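It is worth pausing here to work through a concrete case rather than discussing structure prediction in the abstract. The textbook approach is simple: state the sequence, then state the predicted structure, then interpret. We follow exactly that order.
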Amino acid sequence: MGLRIRQVLAAVVIGTTSCVASANDVLLVHYDIVGKSANDLRQELNTKGPTDKDGKRFDGITQWHVAWTFHYAPTTEGCKLTEIRTSVEGTTTLPRWVDGSNASNSLIRKWQDYMAALSLHEDGHYAHGVGAAKEIEALGQSFHVSDNCSTIAKAFNDQASSILERYKAMDATYDNDTNHGQTQGARFP
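Step two, the predicted structure:
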């Protein structure tokens, strides 16, 4: 699934070491589909589903974005990190069946089961973003005093970027392992 990465540059500020990770709720976006049968709905999903960065269409997609800021300060021993803040935001796009009120109970149940499984799968993607933010925040605790502030800033950004790449790879592995959620029940019809 898609991932946007943005780094926020460090500012020199004197303060105390603190870490604050914030995970905002995922923004839920819907695309409307119509249909009176499972085949109609599948056709709509195939035609209207969101696309990833490569143009491949899926029934649902989650994009997450992690940002971080940190502050550092010169000390008598060199330079140290004084504050690390991370945030994660995400958007999940899912289908919404808009004319299902007259459908059979079995089709409605099948759709509800499918949507529950698809939502669960997409939540797994967002969890990777939250995990990356938490790991970047924890990374700051492992940094010790450095000879100079530019060295510590570069090292932190490099390691945080490496963490993001690892979680991006975890997203791809997650899709491979679950066949994009199908092994979790996200298969329709």
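Step three, interpretation. Confidence is low (pLDDT under 50) at residues 1-20. Helices lie at 38-48, 105-141, 149-178.
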